[in-house]
UniProtKB/TrEMBL annotation:
Belongs to the ComB family. Keywords: Hydrolase, Magnesium. NCBIfam families: PRK00886.1-4. GO terms for molecular function: 2-phosphosulfolactate phosphatase activity; magnesium ion binding; sulfopyruvate decarboxylase activity. This is Probable 2-phosphosulfolactate phosphatase. It comes from the Bacteria. The keyword Hydrolase applies. PANTHER family: 2-PHOSPHOSULFOLACTATE PHOSPHATASE-RELATED (PTHR37311). It holds the Pfam family 2-ph_phosp. It catalyses: (2R)-O-phospho-3-sulfolactate + H2O = (2R)-3-sulfolactate + phosphate. It is an enzyme of class 3 (hydrolase). Its cofactor is Mg(2+).
């Protein structure tokens, strides 16, 4: 298995992902939200690039849906839920469709349509996901959503955590950037302490979202793998 990393949504190029297995990571917070919502009984998550597309889908569905997401880490006017995974509890999302639009995560997902398969990854479901990747045993690209097109330490160390897990199972062929991501995680296993240096961490902390930060840095607390297929994300 060859393993590579793309450092932001702006760096997604067709030749890097075409016909490959892709794992999209936006641990702070979109992919943590998606994983949590599905774990708590949401029927599916439908990711959109724009707020306008999200509202249009809501009109189409008419009922049994929730609008979730953010712009600049803040709840979108007219949406039911923000981008906090803690809001997506079982009593709120069970049996509902989640229409999601975020600044970075849903953009990264929709930019990966040329991939063979698209999985959704975060710290919270890393073991389940890496077990699935090991079972498939094909080349994989970890796509970091990043922050407004820029590299983000949080997504990078999350990719490193998964790469480290894969290498525990077998020795794989890592690109230089994949090797660096693994090195970063293995030398900084206390993830929340490491990402305190990240710009996006500071943004969320200044908004009083410390509980979100702590939750998103938990390791392997959800045993499921979401997959994006035909415009929607469900459990495989």
């Amino acid at each position: 298995m060859k393993i590579d990393v793309i450092i932001s949504a702006d760096d997604i190029k067709e030749n890097k992902i075409k016909d490959k297995i892709v794992v999209v990571i936006d641990m702070l917070r979109a992919t943590s939200v998606i994983t949590t919502a599905l774990n708590n009984g949401a029927s599916r998550v439908i990711p959109f690039l724009t707020v306008e597309e999200a509202f249009s889908k809501a009109k189409e569905l008419k009922d049994n849906y929730l609008l979730g997401g953010e712009r600049k880490a803040v709840l979108i006017d007219g949406f039911n839920l923000s981008n906090s995974p803690l809001e997506y509890s079982k009593d709120v999302v069970n049996g509902k469709d989640i229409i999601l639009s975020t600044t970075n995560g849903t953009r990264a997902i929709n930019n990966c349509l040329k991939a063979k398969r698209i999985f959704i990854g975060a710290m919270i479901n890393a073991k389940a996901l890496t077990d699935k990747l090991a079972e498939i045993n094909e080349d994989v690209v970890f796509v970091n959503a990043g922050t407004v097109g820029q590299f983000s330490m949080d997504d990078f160390i999350c990719a490193g955590f998964m790469i480290s897990k894969l290498n525990e199972l077998n020795n794989h062929e890592l690109s230089d950037i994949a090797t660096t991501a693994r090195y970063i995680y293995e030398n900084n296993p206390n993830v929340i302490e490491y990402i305190k240096l990240a710009r996006h961490y500071s943004v969320l902390k200044n908004l009083g979202l410390e509980a979100d930060l702590e939750y998103c840095c938990k390791k392997d607390i959800i045993d499921l793998v979401p997959e994006f297929v035909n415009g929607e994300i469900k459990l495989i």
